[in-house]
Amino acid sequence: MELHEIERDAAVVREFLFAGDAQVVLESLKTGTRYAYRVKRPEGTEGCYRRGHWDDRRFVTFLLEGARPLYVGALYRTMGSWTFLNLSTASAYPAASPEVRGFDHLLLLLKFHEVSRKMKIYNVGLCGRCGQSLAEEEYRAGLHSECLP
Predict the structure, then answer these.
(1) Domain count of the fold of the chain
(2) 117: Cβ–Cβ under 8 A, 6 or more apart, which residues?
């Protein structure tokens, strides 16, 4: 898997991460450990209006090379910002696991329009909205120019 670092700007990271089909790799600068996630909108909900508001849910799965994705939790947008990672009994990881804590750390900083200096954020060369291959000049944003808002 070829990794491409995302621009270290909170607005760019947030747009990529919540676009609808983002595959993101977080790397700890302290340990060098990498964790890969997929943040995906539920199938068939693009532009879906439900229960009096736009359906702004994202499901987070943990990606292991050569294995099926493992469910981590769900994200919901409330009052214009994405909430913390909601775990359930279906979650493959407990809240104290490094897989969950790293992702939660990223979400918390994004709420305050910051990006952690303790981690690098990569995309895997696929658009975070449509999932198609990115051109080299699109790697830093993680989205095709036509998929940008």
Answers:
(1) 1
(2) 29
pLDDT tens profile 74-112 = 888 766 666 678 898 999 999 999 999 999 989 888 888
For the stretch 21-78, pLDDT in tens is 999 999 999 999 999 999 998 876 665 445 555 557 889 999 988 889 999 998 887 6
Distance between CA atoms of residues 101 and 103, nearest Å: 6
Which tokens go with 41? 């909108």
Range of the domain at 65: 4-147
> What residue has token string 């943040």?
39
> 106 phi and psi, to 5 degrees?
-60, -45
Residue matched to tokens 């080299």: 136
Positive or negative torsion for Cα 109, 115, 119, 121: positive
Supply the pTM of this predicted model.
Answer: 0.87
